[in-house]
Every structure is written in C-alpha cells, then in structure tokens.
C-alpha cells in the first residue's frame, strides 16, 4: 500500500474481497470491481503469506470441504 497512488479504501476493498471469497479470487474476477486488479492481487497475496510458515501437521480441521467417497469398482460420478 505504501508508495502507491491508490486510495486506501481500494486496498481494503480488495483485501476484503480476496479474503471472503470462498474459492479465492483471480485478477479477472477482481478487475471489474476495482480496475487495477493485476497490480493489487499479487501484492495482497504476498502480504497474506507468513514468511516463517511450516507444513501442516497433526489433526487438521477443514471447513466447507466435500471429499467424495468412492469404492474401488464404482464408476466415477458426475457433479
């Protein structure tokens, strides 16, 4: 955000849309709403990553995820 000529309100709206969209958001989806999505999105994604992150371990809970169960000899279902 520092050193750009974009209003702070635009940065916050972009961060809000990126963080609340359930499947993530591409620059093409953000472009009609904000304009300079190709500039904002990479900077926001970089800022959202913890530099000292480690791979997940142990029991991990995931929300809003559907993992379909399929037996070995069942045909693949659509959907």
Provide the fold topology:
Elements: H1 8-20, H2 27-34, H3 37-47
Condensed summary:
The chain has three helices and no strands. With 79 residues, the chain is mainly alpha-helical.
Q: Please give the count of helices.
A: 3
Using only CA atoms, what is the Rg? 18 Å
Query: Multimeric state of these chains?
Result: single chain
Largest sheet: none
Shape: elongated
| Unreliable sequence segments | none
Measured between the Cα atoms of the first and last residue, the distance is 41 Å
User: Helix fraction?
Assistant: 40-55%
What is the mean pLDDT? 78
Structural class of the helices, strands and pairings?
A: mainly alpha
DSSP strand tally: 0
Order of helices and strands: HHH
Give the DSSP E fraction (strand runs of 2 or more residues).
under 5%
